Amino acid sequence: MDRPSKAVKVLPLTCLKTTDEHGTCGPGCDAGCPNLHANTTPCALRGWCEAEVQWSVMRTKNYRQIFTSSSTKHGFGNLDEFTKAPVCPEEFRAKCKGSLKFTHRGKDEEQVLQLQEHVFGLKARNNTNLKFKRLPLEEVRVLARALPCYTRLSHVALHQSVLSAEATQSLLKPLPSSLLKLTLASGMDCAARLLADAVTNLKLKVLNLENNKIGEEGAMAIAWSSSSLEIVDL
Length: 234
Ligand SMILES: [Zn+2]
Description:
alpha/beta; 234 residues
């Protein structure tokens, strides 16, 4: 990747000045100022930070990442920790054009977008397992939109995530026929009929629904929904 022109400036340490809350170091501070300036853009709005988060969340063992937030509630009670889902390239591009900022906009933005698309494509074409934990509802929706790109999945697992009926439906719809095992262990007040309908179209062998509130009638509906099912774990 080419370095943006004039990105490197030489400044003696003794000339470094502190910056204010606006990221400026005093009168005369402009775009050409060689001083180090505080980046006043929050991490979540920086294009590079979000791209790096995306490369991290594309790992198979996605659940090993933990984000913490003191200002946003994600439906996990007092434990304000959550994780993120991989974003499909079209959506990441729209997010960058809409709300994310790049320090050298116009120079590195397109390269970052292409790199995110490249890494996402590699993962989506090759991943056979996806395991998530503590996805808030909006991230479950993000995952549902990305799933159609994953063509070789054999096991998808969501633990302790927030699932509404609508999110569950959109999550199950794009799952590939290669999927053999599905784990939805999220403590959801599960719409068993909805699950049974969705499972009918898959070729699952193992369905793990532990920790969900599924009654006897719902369990029977799910168990009889697919001829390929060998194990339903409640
Ligand atoms: Zn300055």
